[in-house]
Amino acid sequence: MTRLSGNNSNNMALLIGTLIAALLIGLALFAVSKKDKTAAGGEGNFNYASLPYAGKEDAKVNVVVVEDFKCPACKGFEESVTPQLHSNYVDNGKIKLYSLVWPFISSQVVPVTPDDSTLAAQGARCVFEQGGNDAYNRFKPILFRAQGDEREAWATKDRLKELAGSVEGLDQEKFATCLDTDATLAAVQEDKKAAEAAGVTGTPTVFVNGKRVESGYAEISKAIDEALK
């Protein structure tokens, strides 16, 4: 009977071990590369089913606007870019325009107490969970019109309840309970994680079918047109 010598066995074991180590290193490098590419390239993998949107259900293109209700630039976007997107793409069924609130200003940029970036996001979520897309899309511009100085905590719970009173058909008692019990805080935190996972560092940030684009109307329009082809 022919047997492998001890030296040959050791050499074979060493070779197999080296190949396995090389394979593991390669897989690790691939994972890191993929993660870095996602962060640098600005790609977002969003749970669209959890987000409020404007548009027709069968629209083929998803546009996500990441915003903070305390953000002055977001208010400018809401007043100038959003109406153009509605008239040219939302109203005719070409896109669904999603809102993803990333509450960061109160805690990271201009720290104030209470954290009214988060409170405003919770209030908007309370409206969405009670009244769906229609109620949310009525409340959103109300919040932006009421926007105060970002250095001040203007979106208090009392102020949010007052603003919610302008949303027709909203059960105000139910809204107040939702806000007072922080019932939507977990959902807001999940949205925050989704924005950060997509590499968002400021607002407004726009994604067209998961790919980040510049937040000017011309750039967004170009990306939408390309996605519609």
Report on the structure:
With 229 residues, this protein is an alpha+beta fold. It has two domains: 1-41; 48-228, Glutaredoxin, CATH 3.40.30.10. The protein is built from eight helices and five strands; from the N terminus they run αββαβαααααββα. The protein has helices at residues 6-41, 72-90, 105-109, 116-145, 157-164, 172-180, 185-197, 217-228, and strands at residues 53-54, 61-67, 95-101, 205-208, 211-213. It has a five-stranded mixed sheet, with helices on both faces. A hairpin with a 2-residue loop joins strand 4 (205-208) and strand 5. The longest helix has 36 residues, at 6-41. The protein starts with 5 loop residues before the first helix and ends with a helix. The model is unreliable at 1-41 (pLDDT under 50).
Question: Can you give me a brief rundown of this structure?
Answer:
The protein has 229 residues and is an alpha+beta fold.
In terms of DSSP E residues, the strand content is 5-15%
Can you identify the CATH class of the largest domain? Alpha Beta
Give the topology string: H per helix, E per strand.
Answer: HEEHEHHHHHEEH
Q: Based on Cα principal axes, name the global outline.
A: globular
Terminal CA distance:
70 Å
Order of strands, widest sheet: 1-3-2-4-5
| Average pLDDT level | 86
CATH topological fold name of the largest domain:
Glutaredoxin
Protein name: DsbA family protein
InterPro entries: Thioredoxin-like_fold, Thioredoxin-like_sf
Keywords: Disulfide bond, Membrane, Oxidoreductase, Redox-active center, Signal, Transmembrane, Transmembrane helix
Domain Thioredoxin-like fold: 53-226
